[in-house]
Amino acid sequence: MAQSDGTPGTSALRESVAALRNTPRATVLVIGGGINGIGTFRELALNGVDVALVERGDYVSGASSASSHMIHGGIRYLENGEFRLVNEGVHERNGLLKIAPHYVKPLQTTIPIYSTFSGILAAPMRFLTHKSGKPQERGALLIKVGLTLYDFFSRDGGTVPRHQFHGRKRSLSELPKLDPRIKYTATYFDASVHEPERLALDVLNDALVGGKKARAANYVEAVGADEKGVVLRDRESGEEFTFEADVVVNVSGPWTDFTNTALGTTTSFMGGTKGSHIVLDNPELVEACEGREMFFEHSDGRIVLIYPLKGRVMVGTTDIDADPTKPAVCTEEEIDYFFELVNHVFPAIAVNRSQIVFKFSGIRPLPRHDDEAPGFVSRDYRIEPSTLPGKGTTVLSLVGGKWTTFRALSEHLSNEVFTRIGVSVASRP
Question: Which residue intervals define the domain FAD dependent oxidoreductase in the entry (predicted)?
Answer without folding.
Answer: 28-373
